[in-house]
Design goal:
The chain has about 600 residues and is an alpha/beta fold.
Length: about 600
């Protein structure tokens, strides 16, 4: 006998559904009430208590200026700390009586050695000027060379017992594509300045290994940088640079215990032991009583507040403009875009309160046309007020072009600069498309060169036309440098030819005036302009909407990136492929991307 079907009453469906809807609606109302209430009241003010210890991690990319981007998939602000913020934060922390010291736990800081050197020097100055402590702790699977180089500034360095310690010197690996292009029947038609044998950016397209010129310049600047690193660490630890070289050659230092044996680290300790040391240093009652504040958050807030004060009152009008220019040179878009930088240079030039300009350049170069646009604005600015260039990790090729007319040029010893040369690349895709895909092409035109296409191989006559254009731009590059540096074109040509130099070597050949970082350049600018009370305005100005500040305050200090799980190498290659979109016209660009650890 079939059982009767159970009938669910209307009440059992309606009332639970209604209650669930009411709960969801109430939560949404509360969420938007809190959200919009915060927008009107603003985020809670950033407060620092007595006996605070600043916790420095420097995780991720360190740019010239801080950047915050909203990630809709995680509903968080992804933040990157800027060098300007770090330097200013250390300066303010030194004079802040509420701050007892700094605890360093570096977490994959990504920057060049010039930036690392500026941070390190600022940490040394913080200790010497304030008398406060800086304690560094190394943990994780392995400690990299750059991480240790920065943290070695601390008077106390400790490490986790099982952590590996990488101390093997510097090296570089380049990838060459010719073999792959041959298999694809793809040919890159390369044109360099006639004597630009050091301009090796295009070598991977037609060679299978480095040329003698390329290998020579890489060996030279790696050796120069390694000398500076060994000297800096050796001075801090009382070890001769020669001994440090032996340690690296012989791989004596592999684990944290080895680092203690060879006096790079003071002792191995577990983190709870380090916390007890911080308790004693800070005067806290116990580990639970320690007042930790993110150094990155402290630095960003101090930097932003200072900019608001300088820009918000005519009584405190800035008299020094620091223009931050970073990335590949292009006419528009992200990075060092001429449409943005020329506008900032013009703004600083026309501002009667601004007495001097510090132009911070961190760029491998790029578009020759965009470089020339920026060069012109630097020349115009220099005609009415001093323009002091401060070079970051790299200021080469187009990055040097825009720096050449400056009143004075500062660079770190490990800055990569020079690379005075140009190149052009015209791919020939016709063979690949015909042989691999069976495609063919036919053309009709009124003149011999009416149809410009990568599907037709260039004739010797056409290649010579491109060569002439490249040589013309190179000759103009030489002239620009000669005028800016007070040299003859022939003198510049001897040290140009696309060759890359370190900042230290660049001083000896006349491409750079003085070794020093951003703070040194600002101090020089203030002194030369006779400013008794220098007030610095950074450009572009920091402008944040209330919603952005709210989301930043809601983001946890140690947030997990949505990119977690994706290999870093793939992310880097994707970024490189995206950057190719800006390769338009003849390039004045650094031969390769440098990643030294």
């Amino acid at each position: 006998m079939e059982k009767p079907k159970k009938v669910i009453s209307f009440g059992k469906v309606f009332w639970p559904s209604l209650m669930a809807s009411v709960v969801v609606l109430t939560l949404l109302v509360l969420f938007f009430f809190v959200l919009f209430g915060s927008l009107f009241t603003g985020p809670e003010p950033f407060a620092v208590k007595d006996k605070t210890v600043l916790h420095m991690t420097l995780s991720g990319q360190i740019n010239e200026s801080s950047n915050s981007e909203f990630n809709p998939s995680s509903f968080q602000m992804e933040q990157q700390i800027g060098l300007s913020d770090i330097l200013y934060g250390l300066e303010k922390a030194a004079s802040d009586k509420r701050i007892e010291g700094i605890f360093i736990e570096l977490d994959g800081a990504q920057c060049g050695y010039a930036t690392a050197s500026e941070i390190r020097e600022a940490l040394v100055n913080f200790q010497e000027e304030s008398g406060k402590f800086v304690l560094a702790y190394h943990k994780g699977e392995a400690v990299g060379m750059k991480q240790y180089f920065i943290a070695s500034a601390a008077k106390e360095n400790y490490g986790f017992p099982s952590t590996m310690f990488e101390f093997g010197g510097l090296g570089a690996e380049l990838m060459f594509f010719k073999g792959m292009f041959d298999k694809l029947d793809l040919e890159m038609q390369v044109v360099r300045g006639s004597n630009n044998d050091f301009k090796s950016a295009v070598e991977p397209y037609f060679l299978e290994k480095m040329s003698d010129s390329s290998k020579h310049q890489i060996e030279r600047y790696l050796t120069s940088m390694w000398e500076d690193i060994r000297q800096t660490i050796g001075d801090a630890k009382g070890i001769s640079p020669a001994d440090l070289n032996i340690y690296a050659d012989s791989t004596y230092i592999r684990r944290m215990h080895d680092a203690v044996t060879y006096k790079l680290i003071d002792a191995v300790k577990y983190r709870d032991e380090v916390m007890e040391m911080l308790v004693q240093h800070s005067g806290a009652k116990d580990a639970e009583d320690l007042e930790f504040v993110s150094f990155e958050k402290f630095a960003r807030k101090k930097f932003e507040n200072n900019q608001k004060i300088v820009n918000g009152s005519s009584k405190s009008a800035a008299n020094i403009a620091v223009i931050l220019a970073e990335g590949g040179v292009s006419t528009t878009g992200d990075g060092l875009a001429s449409d943005k930088i020329t506008r900032l240079l013009r703004q600083a030039r026309l501002d009667e309160h601004i007495k001097t300009i510090v132009f911070r350049v961190n760029s491998p170069g790029g578009s020759a046309l965009a470089s020339d646009e920026i060069w012109r604005e630097v020349v115009l600015a220099k005609a009415v007020k001093p323009v002091i260039v401060s070079m970051g990790d790299v200021a080469a090729s187009g990055g040097y072009y825009i720096a050449a007319p400056a009143t004075r040029i500062f660079a770190e010893p490990m800055t990569i600069t020079g690379s005075i040369g140009v190149f052009g690349v015209i791919p020939y895709t016709g063979g690949m498309l015909e042989n691999k895909l069976g495609l063919s092409f036919d053309r009709v035109s009124t003149n011999k060169r009416s149809v410009l296409t990568t599907n037709k191989k260039m004739t010797p006559e056409e290649l010579q036309i491109v060569q002439d254009e490249v040589d013309y731009i190179y000759d103009e590059f030489l002239q620009r440098v000669a005028e800016g540096r007070g040299m003859s074109k022939e003198q510049v040509n001897v040290i140009a030819r696309g060759r890359v130099w370190t900042g230290k070597d660049a001083v000896s050949i006349g491409l750079v005036d003085e070794l020093g970082g951003l703070k040194d350049a600002i101090a020089y600018a203030a002194l030369e302009a006779g400013l008794e009370s220098p007030k610095v305005q950074y450009l572009p100005e920091i402008k944040k909407e209330p919603i952005q500040e709210l989301l930043e305050s809601l983001t946890e200090e140690n947030q997990v990136s949505v990119k977690q799980g994706i290999p870093e190498e793939l992310l880097e290659y994707y970024s490189k492929l995206r950057s190719l979109e800006n390769y338009v016209g003849i390039q004045a660009r650094l031969p390769y991307e440098l990643k030294l650890d």
